[in-house]
Amino acid sequence: VFYSSIMANSCRKLIFNIYIVFYCSAVIMPQICICSQFTSSPIDQFNKDPKAFPVATNGEMFPWHELRLPTVVIPLHYDLLIHPNLTSLDFVASEKIEVLVRDATQFIILHSKDLEILNASLQSEEDVRYKKPGENLTVLSYPAHQQIALLVPEKLRAHLRYSVAIDFQAKLADGFEGFYKSTYRTLGGETRTIAVTDFEPTEARMAFPCFDEPLFKANFSIKIRRESRHIALSNMPKVKTIELEGGLLEDHFETTVRMSTYLVAYIVCDFTSVSGTASSGVKVSIYASPDKWSQTHYALEASLKLLDFYENYFDIHYPLPKLGRFKFIIVFIFRTCFDFIRLYM
Ligand SMILES: *[C@@H]1O[C@H](CO)[C@@H](O)[C@H](O)[C@H]1NC(C)=O
Ligand SMILES: *[C@@H]1O[C@H](CO)[C@@H](O)[C@H](O)[C@H]1NC(C)=O
Ligand SMILES: *[C@@H]1O[C@H](CO)[C@@H](O)[C@H](O)[C@H]1NC(C)=O
Ligand SMILES: *[C@@H]1O[C@H](CO)[C@@H](O)[C@H](O)[C@H]1NC(C)=O
């Protein structure tokens, strides 16, 4: 009781500060920027003064010169299939992004950083319905802005939905951003590798081409391929696991709520877990490497108490049906404040 009342006071202050900073930087500022950004439509600009545009890696004109993405095309849903290999330390992946076109356009601009785009194609809603194959798209890359442009052969029509498919690959990143590799030592002294994501604030673009700005919210359906000695975790509970030819397993996760790209998370590792259920029914799991195992039960107990505390404090329910934590209790405290605030702003 003593512990939690101290925490309640200091945490209220902290939450208030975080709230203000976050609200200003993420909610008010981008809207100001977006409102002032578009004086004439991007296509008109391109036709009027092609010299004002940067040059893509292949020498062609890159059709967009702003750091912020155009808002002509917005994402609705991402289907991601990620296949990392913890032996070769790289991953291959494919994604389908369902987009809504708000104004007719000849290109789609996405963020992408250090990804090798293999090919991209586009289907209209009708193509999807009649299972027609997609049209191949030309992909231009402008690394200085971490952007790629998908050029379509025929103008996309306003108010229609399209499905953009992209196949790509990359090395698992060094460092602690994007989809990166990390190692830990077992008690027996063996070094093991895991693959982890950290997308905040703008590193989702290192893991998959996306509209990597907080205002472009969408739902995410994630599938991860792995070996049977590993587990895969993501934001949402697993729906099913299918066995592929050759013995690999593919985990399918439930579709997320509508959210920003930087909240997407996944991990492939060989950790083990303890789980419990908070009074609201949210399942909380603590995953840990074997050397941290002795601390997991304490972490679980504290996490369950904290979740109850936050739910009462904000008078809302944690919006996702599960909560997984990898590190220690202090991480949990801060991250949970953030998660609540973000998902409801
Ligand atoms: C699209 O590209 C793939 C290879 O990337 C090729 O097999 C296919 O024939 C192309 N389709 C069209 C319509 O050009
Ligand atoms: C890329 O090319 C391969 C081989 O032609 C094809 O099977 C795949 O569907 C293509 N992917 C996309 C996103 O167009
Ligand atoms: C990773 O590559 C190794 C061979 O280099 C292979 O044996 C293993 O099945 C691959 N794992 C996955 C998840 O693809
Ligand atoms: C996407 O999320 C919204 C709100 O979070 C939800 O209403 C909608 O059904 C979701 N869409 C899919 C396809 O799951």
From TrEMBL:
Domain Aminopeptidase N-like N-terminal: from-to ranges: 75-263
Entry GO terms, CC: cytoplasm; extracellular space; membrane
Origin: domain of life: Eukaryota
InterPro entries cross-referenced by the UniProt entry: Aminopeptidase_N-like_N, Aminopeptidase_N-like_N_sf, M1_APN-typ, Peptidase_M1, Peptidase_M1_aminopeptidases
Pfam families listed in its UniProt record: Peptidase_M1_N (PF17900)
UniProt keyword terms in alphabetical order: Aminopeptidase, Hydrolase, Membrane, Protease, Transmembrane, Transmembrane helix
Entry's Gene Ontology molecular function annotations: metalloaminopeptidase activity; peptide binding; zinc ion binding
CDD domains for this protein: M1_APN-Q_like
Annotated TM spans: 14-32
GO biological process terms, semicolon-separated: peptide catabolic process; proteolysis
Xref: PANTHER family: ENDOPLASMIC RETICULUM AMINOPEPTIDASE 2 (PTHR11533:SF239), PROTEASE M1 ZINC METALLOPROTEASE (PTHR11533)
Protein name (database record): Endoplasmic reticulum aminopeptidase 2
